Amino acid sequence: MSKLKKQIGNSILELITGNIVEQDTDAVVNAANKRLAPGGGVAGAIHRAAGPGLWEECKKLGGCETGEAKITSGHGLKAKYIIHTVGPVYSGSSRDPVDLKNSYLNSLKLASENGIKSISFPSISTGAFGYPTEPASRIALQTVIEYLKSHPEIELVRFVLFSQEDYSIYKKALDEILNE
Ligand code: AR6
Asked: Whole-structure pTM over 0.95, yes or no?
């Protein structure tokens, strides 16, 4: 397992390889679809591990728009909360980074509002939604770093990367951002 830790203000930013459903942070983030329904990838893994009570709770939330975030309890996960956010679908006509930034930002805001001190993110939009990992990693890391500088109530943000290749892309982007 690869792991990297950096201090940002009073908080810790971590990159690891691993599985989002196994994280013991207060919250884990789900790379969700607009219905907040069980799907493939991260959403499928989270719904399977959390159990059917999660879908029952999600049904009552009325869906989630791109760039927005909603919170539920963690059900069968170690994490107490799941924050569901819908990243943008990347396509020829839709490459605006604002929605991806908003997915991270609105997830972090929900965390602060709910007293969450530690949170794990997957690489939102870079699977089924097709966002290239390199630009997505820069948006993800820049948004989190900027937020942590003014929000010391969040003590730990962990990026959980599913492959060694994704981990290396995030690590390179983080090194570049911190040296800018
Ligand atoms: N833990 C950590 N990362 C994972 C895991 C896991 N268990 N499983 C996959 N990844 P995706 P999206 C990585 O497709 O692009 C779903 O069907 C994966 O390798 O989960 O935002 C939903 O229902 C990739 O790097 O999310 C939506 O319809 C990253 O997580 C749609 O996919 C994101 O992949 C959302 O697509």
From this structure: yes
